[in-house]
Amino acid sequence: MTDMTLDFSDQVVVVTGGTRGIGRAITEAFAATGANVVPTSRTDADVTEAVEAVQEQGGESLAIPTDVSDKKAVKNLFVQVQDKFGRIDTVVNNAGINPMGALGRPEAIDVDEFDRTINVNLRGAFACARGAGSALQASGGSLINIASVGGVVGIPRQHPYVATKHGLVGLTKSLALDWAPDVRVNAVAPGYVTTDLTDGIRENEDLYQHLLDQTPMDRFADPDEIAAPVVFLASEMASYITGECLVVDGGWITE
Ligand code: NDP
Predict the structure, then answer these.
(1) Less Cβ around it within 10 Å: N or C end of the chain?
(2) How would you class 91 by CB atoms within 10 Å of its CB: exposed for 0-12, middle for 13-18, buried for 19 or more?
(3) Is residue 208 among the annotated active site residues?
(4) What ipTM is given for this predicted complex?
């Protein structure tokens, strides 16, 4: 019978961008289920603080600041996690950016901003999947990519971001085919969430109201409301779900 509990005791979870916003909520949610969680990002102090939050909940952790766009750093991250724990059960590719310089009409967006966004959101996610692949296959684990509603439908003036998130959904589906039945690979596609990434939007009253008008739930999500479906997808309760993209958007793109 399927295990209907959310008990990740003795399991090892790596969360990229696990120090702030959605990633931090994912880190704390897994730690609350008993997992050993390794939250990483580029900022040493934030990584130390997130690691301490895991330890306060009784889990073991490791502080390994990592820029996911640096393939050598990513390789080192997974080697170190394997060396310490001897296993990896879940990887959450959450690190992502939407640079302000890459917002606007296509002809105004610098091609270098396009590269920068791809290098973090898409190439970084692939590097992590590659780095963790053999460990996930050994544990029968799970990979979860944090995409976006922008990975499912078009959004104006966010071309690099939307292109990378569509790519991430495609990567999810093709990895799911190659790694089945050993590793399940899924994506979560949030709508707007209250984090640093959306500070600029919430400060623009007209834009904020316009987005709320488009959202039947009439509010942005709390990061915990994205973390909960991520933990579900990693759990035994989702044992027959793979290659799926779960939209969590308060009804925004519901037809
Ligand atoms: P935040 O900006 O609040 O946090 C982003 C996290 O990623 C930080 O921990 C940041 O740490 C880390 N990060 C950024 N660049 C890198 C990098 N190159 N290498 C490693 N870590 C990095 O973002 P959110 O929490 O809002 O977003 C998290 C994910 O959710 C992203 O993939 C985003 O696209 C997606 N998303 C967010 C939505 C929203 O409305 N907020 C909606 C839909 C999807 P540091 O800067 O210290 O490296």
Answers:
(1) C
(2) buried
(3) no
(4) 0.99
